[in-house]
Design goal:
The protein is elongated, with a radius of gyration of 31 Å. It has 345 residues and is an all-alpha fold. Helices cover 76% and strands 0% of the residues. It has 19 helices and no strands. It has a domain of 54 residues: Alpha Horseshoe (Serine Threonine Protein Phosphatase 5, Tetratricopeptide repeat).
């Protein structure tokens, strides 16, 4: 029977966590009919009625049901937790703390009880105690995002910007790219919200601007991504990868000439750097030349890119194409001779 009660509680709590209070109400009412003296079911049912604004059971009736649950099982951590939740909702914070304290005595490793305690201390403006409780909650359940979020907010209220930013970064790392319960857009919105929280504290956070840019780009919101990359490059003008990322974004927009400009900025920052090998520069040259086959400079530049990769036949073909278009082009002729000599040697 104990295992059965655990399963029932788990199902009911899943409804509650998803804020599906109508589903929880239906499930708990049917379950209570089968087991009318189950204290855990009673207390959760009372809590659900409170979340539904007492539309089927009055506040006084919920109070009586809660008392009955407590009389039936004072040693149930779940009963004490939900009694704490009910007192919290009534803004009877001292009573809530006593309930949570009792629940912790009975089940010290329950992260949600610690989270409830933290929320209550927060409302009482006892921020240090709130932080202690939230930290205990996330220590026990590192994936409890509500506790992380409350912890960050508390640090903000204490003007502890460093800890607040670190917590927001932690939350972002915990948000999966996709879930059964959230659409991809909802996941993006959550991450964007937390990056903006960071930037509201520290508008010079390079990681946050870059993180926002990546999310906007993945969501094909290219103009928003460009604004974020622009902020990032202002903060880190010598970050080669940032310039490449901007180039890649323009390439995704099929604006290949502009992409090339940013790729070349990266190359100019580190002309001998191996970074060249990961820049899709040749692909961009080819895309431009599909539209502008008579662009002599583009043929020369693509030849140089091939030459850097030691693909001398391809480089020679590019320089020869440039010379066909402009037989008097001194740079194309010089680069042809250079590539020819490199190929021989």
């Amino acid at each position: 029977m104990a295992m059965e009660i655990q399963e029932i509680s788990k199902i009911a709590e899943n409804f509650i966590k998803q804020k599906n209070f109508e589903g929880a109400l239906s499930f708990l009412k049917k379950t209570l009919e089968k087991d009318p003296t189950n204290a855990e079911i009673m207390i959760m049912l009372g809590f659900v009625h409170s979340q539904l604004n007492f539309k089927e059971m009055s506040s006084e009736e919920v109070a009586k049901l809660s008392k009955k649950a407590l009389d039936l099982n004072k040693k149930s951590p779940l009963v004490m937790k939900y009694l704490g939740n009910l007192n919290f909702n009534r803004k009877e914070y001292d009573k809530a703390i006593r309930c949570y304290s009792k629940a912790i005595d009975l089940d010290p490793n329950n992260a949600e009880i610690w989270f409830g305690m933290g929320r209550t201390y927060h409302e009482k403006n006892k921020m240090n105690k709130a932080i202690e409780s939230y930290n205990k909650a996330v220590e026990l359940d590192p994936n409890l995002i509500d506790a992380w979020n409350s912890l960050a907010s508390t640090y903000e209220l204490k003007n502890d910007d460093t800890n607040a930013i670190n917590i927001y970064k932690k939350i972002i790392s915990l948000i999966p790219d996709s879930t059964e319960d959230s659409t991809e857009e909802e996941v993006y919105d959550k991450k964007i919200e937390y990056y903006r929280n960071i930037l509201s504290i520290d508008p010079y956070s390079l990681d946050a601007w870059e993180g926002l840019a990546v999310i906007y780009e993945a969501n094909k919101e290219f103009e928003k991504a460009l604004v974020c990359y622009e902020k990032a490059t202002e903060l880190a003008p010598y970050d080669i990868d940032l310039w490449i990322n901007v180039g890649n974004l323009y390439a995704a927009k099929k604006e290949y000439e502009t992409a090339i400009e940013f790729y070349e900025k990266a190359i100019n920052l580190a002309p001998d750097h191996a970074i060249r090998k990961k820049i899709p520069l040749i692909k961009s040259y080819k895309k431009v030349l599909e539209v502008q086959p008579d662009n002599v400079n583009m043929w020369i530049n693509m030849g140089y890119a091939y030459e850097y990769r030691k693909q001398y036949d391809e480089a020679l073909n590019c320089y020869e194409k440039a010379l066909q278009l402009d037989p008097n082009n001194a740079l194309a002729r010089y680069k042809w001779m250079e590539a020819h000599e490199e190929k021989i040697n």
